[in-house]
Amino acid sequence: MPESPEVQALADELDARLTGRALAEVDVVEFRVVKTRSRPPEGLVGQQVAHVGRFGKLLDVGFGSGAHLIVSLGRHGWARYGQSEADAAAPAGAVTLLSLGFDDGIVVELTDAGDWVSLGCWVVDTPADVPAVAKLGPDPADPAFSRAEFDRAFVGRRKQLKAVLQEQESLAGIGNAYSDEILFVARLSPVAHASMLDVEALDRLFAATVDVVRTAVAERRGIPIDRLKQAKVDAMLVHGRTGEPCPGCGGAVRDFSFASTMAQYCPDCQTGGEILPLKG
Fold it and tell me: In this predicted model, what pLDDT tens digit does every residue of 8-27 receive, in sequence order?
């Protein structure tokens, strides 16, 4: 799933490419992508892009008219661009669900690689009209993100740390991969309850959250869109590293079941040697 560092890099690249360009054509390949049926994206044709930004893990294409095209990339969504449809064609395993053509010939393809449609888009007057945007909590990538905002998300919560980190109402932009990385850097068990953390552990978790997210944002900046996913994979310390040596202690990184997916951790560094369960 694309998370805030990669979505920020994608937004920055599209902002540089599209700002000032007029939307010339829209091709909705999969109608289920459009969540505002009374305001289809075709209604934006002829309008100039004013900016491309990000809210959490969602992309925001703002137009000079004041309208916004908000895109949720879902679990397997991404974007491609080129000077023609052939240049922007989806890579192997991905299917183009929505195509945007601009007046200078640039084509942006929004793709999905899952077995079900997770990509979604809305045309709205203000981003907060999209429920997924309206509910977002503070973003650790924001320089204004504060310790007070962090404490409101965690202190006293009888909820597992990994769940809080991925809860978009608490902290915006973090998903499965970066929550694994944050908890490893903080040397905390992903299944420990937030309410059990002492001040020192909270300090470590706050520092890890800010550092992991902001470092990733900085490191992804300027990487071409088609290389961002691989850059994310290459940068991981424990996420996706099952069976590999832990970079902290040399022990084996292990899987555990979390919600509907798999996550990774180091038992020696994070759980005092406890092996977290796998679904049978």
Answer: 999 999 999 999 999 999 99
